[in-house]
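Input.
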Amino acid sequence: MAGPGRRFMPILAALLALPLLATTQPADASIRPSTQLGFRILRNGDQIGQERLRFKKNGSTEKVTSKIDIVYRVAFIPVYRFTQTVDETWRDGRLVAMRAHTDDDGTHHHVAVTDQGDELMVDADGKRRAAPPSIIPASLWNMAVLRHNTLLDTTDGDALPITVSNRGTDTIRVNGERVTAYHYHISGALDRDLWYNRAGRLVRVQFTASDGSQIRFVPS
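Output.
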């Protein structure tokens, strides 16, 4: 859910240590918040795409598949298309493999992550580099992103230095209901506002694009 690549930044600005709360913290749902999650992607209130996530657990192994499909139109004419499929494999709460395929308006990216024991090997568009074994992808469904200062870009495999700040609690509407949500802000190479419910489930992503438009991911 980090969102589309840098080519989209002029249009929508890159679609797409944990601070302690003074009140009760949400549960960490970094693995299996549910069997599936769905989000509508909105620009100034109008839907331009969707994201679907599926979770499958087998013993200590968890497989997560995310699919994003975005079409941005001007006067009903498609001017930008972004699709991405990310397959993550986790074992005992640690990333051990990832495959990501992205079509960023005709520019294709392929990222593969494999476990090498004391490090992760990242193969991004044919270029290989080692990454710390503790790094995790910028998959915002995973509340564990709040405990890291570097995330892995699922589009191009780059390392994303970030800072996380705690914005306290807000009351927001989720599928027509008012819920208490824990609000965090990620800044740096990735700029996002995130809200998680008491169970640690992601219930909103929001940011301002470079053209001033408001982008939101909301549960479907």
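The longest helix spans residues 9-12.
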